[in-house]
Design a protein that fits this description.
Blueprint (H helix, E strand, L loop, with lengths): L2 H17 L2 H6 L11 H26 L3 E6 L3 E3 L9 E3 L6 H4 L5 E6 L5 E10 L5 E4 L13 E3 L6 E4 L4 E13 L10 E7 L8 E6 L5 E6 L9 E4 L3 E5 L7 E7 L4 E7 L4 E8 L1 E6 L12 E7 L5 E6 L8 E7 L3 E8 L16 E4 L2 E4 L15
Parallel strand pairs: 1-4
Antiparallel strand pairs: 1-3, 2-7, 3-17, 4-5, 5-9, 6-8, 8-17, 9-16, 10-15, 10-17, 11-14, 11-16, 12-15, 13-14, 18-21, 18-23, 19-20, 19-22, 23-24
Length: 383
């Protein structure tokens, strides 16, 4: 007899006993035990439970490692910042999740840059306190230098701010990758920027370590009052601010082509750090020389990738003025020439209207376009 038959027989006899009158059951001896309890059914249930738990775990891993979509943006005004302040694209950490970042796999981010490039990395956080960081807007407080005296109006929540003081928080950005826009081949040099997002006072410090080129000071941001600054040391790979008492300024540093950056925030009270990226792009704008022949004439100008012809950026003139009209951006690595064409195809402009030369921005330096980028612009107007 099979195990299934034994089990069925045992169940049948048990049900029959339950149907007997109480007086009969009272006289009956104990029910015989089956030769083999119903293990087969349990063995079928347990693997199914294991499979469900495994699937749940896999789904959790997928959720944990899905990149958080994010953007970056420039300040709305420079304040005391250097003249190239608009080239700093400050990373918006509004989607930061402290529980996820402190998990073993960390939190993945993908930032979309204004020229269509993307910057991706994984943020992994450890803390001596129960929690680590939270994202806040700049300035992080009234005594912070960045956001109060320089780089004013940074959008979003660019400051990663400690949640508990005193505490020591370590955040590592690993697998940093800058990906060009679609249609562009090759890569380009970029600067990964780290900045004091709060104020580093006594019993506090900030330390940034890079595997890219040595850190260089990009700006020494003045305090809101006075002229005190944290003391600094720079070994090349590690730049450290050590706090002092009083109202202090802060530092902004950059490293080229880093693929990993680690920040250690030692908070006596609270401490914060912020980050930006600067990549090499070309910017093209348009100014009409001599005005329009026809007041309705408008122009479209664009930048295209040499290798594929993909349009990397396109902007049109508007209104009746001579400009300059807004700039369009293109990723530097694959740029060959700029083209400009009218909104309509009703023939060339008889007055030979011209547009201004392209402006070339490499790591924040704005200069006239190099010889290889000077282009003949085909201009058309609506007649």
């Amino acid at each position: 007899m099979s195990k299934q038959d034994i089990f069925a027989s045992w169940i049948g006899r048990a049900i029959a006993r339950l149907r007997e009158p109480v007086s009969v059951r009272a006289r009956a001896v104990a029910l015989p035990q089956p030769a083999d309890p119903p293990a087969p059914r349990r063995r079928r249930i347990i693997p199914a439970l294991h499979q469900a738990l495994l699937l749940a775990g896999l789904l959790l891993q997928v959720v944990n490692h899905s990149a958080s979509a994010a953007t970056c943006g420039a300040a709305t005004s420079g304040g005391t910042a250097p003249a190239d302040w608009a080239t700093y694209c400050w990373l918006d950490f509004s989607s930061y999740n402290d529980t996820l970042a402190r998990s073993a796999g960390g939190q993945a981010f993908t930032f979309t840059l204004p020229d269509g490039s993307t910057l991706g990395f994984v943020a992994t956080v450890t803390s001596t306190a129960a929690t680590g960081l939270k994202p806040v807007a700049a300035p992080s407080w009234t005594g912070a230098a960045v956001g109060n005296t320089a780089f004013l109006g940074i959008p979003g929540k660019p400051v990663l701010y400690t949640t508990t003081g005193p505490s020591t928080v370590t955040v590592t950005f690993s697998n940093i990758v800058l990906t060009p826009p679609p249609g562009v081949t090759g890569g380009a040099t970029y600067s990964f920027v780290a900045a004091d997002g709060e104020s580093t006072n006594q019993n506090e410090s900030l330390a940034w370590t890079t595997n890219g080129t040595n850190w260089v000071v990009l700006d020494q941001v003045p305090p809101i009052t006075g002229n005190l600054y944290p003391t600094i040391t720079n070994t090349g790979t590690t730049f450290t601010e050590t706090g002092v008492a009083g109202t202090v300024g802060g530092y902004i540093v950059g490293s080229l082509n880093a693929t990993q950056v680690t920040t250690v925030l030692v908070a006596g009270g609270l401490q914060g750090s912020m980050f930006a990226v600067r990549n090499s792009i070309i910017s093209l704008n348009k100014t009409l020389v001599g005005g329009r022949v026809n007041a309705a004439d408008q122009f479209t100008y664009s930048i295209s990738a040499t290798s594929s012809g993909t349009v990397l950026g396109s902007t049109s003139s508007s209104g009746s003025g001579s400009g300059p009209f807004g700039a369009t951006l293109g990723f530097e690595a694959d740029f060959g020439s700029a083209q400009a064409a009218a909104c309509a195809d009703l023939g060339p402009l008889s007055n030979g209207s011209r547009i201004s030369a392209a402006r070339w921005r490499t790591m924040g330096t704005t200069t006239p376009s190099p010889a290889r980028c000077s282009a003949a612009f085909a201009l058309c107007g609506n007649r």
